[in-house]
Amino acid sequence: MMEGRSCCWGEVPVLIDGGAWRRTDVFEALALGAQAVLVGRPVLYGLAAMGENGVTSVIEMLKNELELTMALLAVLILKTSRGVMG
C-alpha cells in the first residue's frame, strides 16, 4: 500500500478492499493512510446467516472491536468521512 500511496498522496482517496476480517486489519489499513476499509465478505456472511440482523451484528461487532483496538493502543480519536469516532 505504501508504494501506491506515495505516487498520488492527497490526490486520490485510498480504499482497501479485501482481507479485512479483524479489528486489527481495519485499524492497520487506516493507520497506514487508507480513507476507508471495505468489509464486504464478512457482511455477506452475516446476511446469509441471519439476514438484516446478521449484517447489523457484523458491522456492530467490527465497530466495537475497532474501538477496543483504539483504546488498547491509546488512540483517542479516529477521523472518519462521517465525522469523528472514538
Automatic annotation (TrEMBL):
Its cofactor is FMN. Residues 1-86 form the FMN hydroxy acid dehydrogenase domain. Keywords: Oxidoreductase. It comes from the Eukaryota. GO terms for molecular function: oxidoreductase activity. InterPro entries: Aldolase_TIM, FMN-dep_DH, FMN_HAD. The keyword NAD does not apply. PROSITE patterns: FMN_HYDROXY_ACID_DH_2. This is Alpha-hydroxy acid dehydrogenase, FMN-dependent.
